[in-house]
User: What shape does this take?
Amino acid sequence: MNRLDMIQGRVRFLQRRAGDWSPGGGQGTLDRIRMFTLHPRLAEDTVPLGRFELSLVRLMDDARYPWFLLVPRVPDAREIYRLAAADQQRLLAESGALCRWMERELRPDKLNLAALGNVVPQLHVHHVARYADDAAWPRPVWGVHPPLPYAPAAREALVARFLARPPEGFVPDGEERA
Assistant: This one.
């Protein structure tokens, strides 16, 4: 093994240890996405909508609040600060696109964003549209009331609204990126 091979191997090791999954620094994006598995609790409590380049987009099945999740497709991700810098930036851009859609389409009084991970350790970012007359206002939504699942027609209407004029960069389930 020559000196260059040793240095490149050490760089790859340090990148993996720091959470850098960029091409050339460990696993490529496609390999990383193939290794990703959604946490069962998130699969159970949410409705799939589609994806951005990095993150899945899911609707929380709680009719009290319009509530979306971004779930970065990074295996074993638990904290935003541990993502590769490019993925941190991408997640922030995707969150911004989702927030702009929520403001435009839902007209909330306030948007609440949070990445808690106390119950589900897999990194996911909550985006909750809040209204002064909602069931938990002004408190956080967690733990105030048990989830109230959407009636099928109401859920379908919100999903249709989302898909009719989606956020920039969003790809619905079953479609490929152009």
